[in-house]
Amino acid sequence: MFDNISLWNIAFIIINLIVLVVIMRIVAIKPIRNIIKKREDFINGKLSNAAASEASAKALETEWHDKMQGVEEESARLMEQAKTNADIEYNRLVKNAHSEADRIVENARKSMEEEHTKVMKGVQTEIAGLAIDITKKVLETSDLKDINDSLYEKFLTEAGDDDGSVGN
């Protein structure tokens, strides 16, 4: 089996292997390396774009969180201001209601005092009239007409005021 192997055959096989390696290098390995290089460059570009996008997204997220915190603070401030305004308005309305209630009570008190005064004057007038009527009847039935007339006149003088009304 190894009888046919000669030096020339070995040299020819080595030369064929070298030529085959060179041809493979030119035809297959170099284009494959170029494709691999292009793929590596493409992947590295995508990775750098992804890293840039991630950094941009993180920056936007940070900005969004800052804005949300600002919105929450502004919301809290507006709520506090609205509460303060509502308290002020409530106090104003309560004060106005108390003033109106005081005015109504005062008007009712004055009206009651006026009505009381009118009733008392009416009662006094009626009592004086009844007293005069009773006195007349007593005096008319009495034998002492002259004494009764003078008492009647005295009573009328004491019972009457300057304006003609009856009272003390």
Produce a short descriptive summary.
The protein has helices at residues 7-141, 145-159. By secondary structure, it is mainly α. The chain starts with 6 loop residues before the first helix and ends in a 9-residue tail after the last helix.
Which stretches are poorly predicted, pLDDT < 50 over at least 5 residues? none
Put simply, the count of helices is: 2
Work out the radius of gyration. 63 Å
Structural class: mainly alpha
Mean pLDDT: 85
Give the N-to-C terminal Cα separation.
169 Å
> What order do the helices and strands follow?
HH
Beta strand %: under 5%
Strand count, sense and barrel status of the largest sheet are: none
**Range of helix content:** over 70%
Number of strands: 0
Overall body shape: rod-shaped
Structural account:
- It is a single chain.
- With 168 residues, the chain is mostly helical.
- 89% of the residues lie in helices and 0% in strands.
- The chain contains two helices and no strands.
- α1 (7-141) runs antiparallel to α2.
- It is rod-shaped.
- The N and C termini lie far apart (169 Å).
Short descriptors:
single chain; 168 residues
Question: What's the layout of helices and strands?
Answer:
Blueprint: H1 7-141, H2 145-159
Helix pairs in contact: 1-2
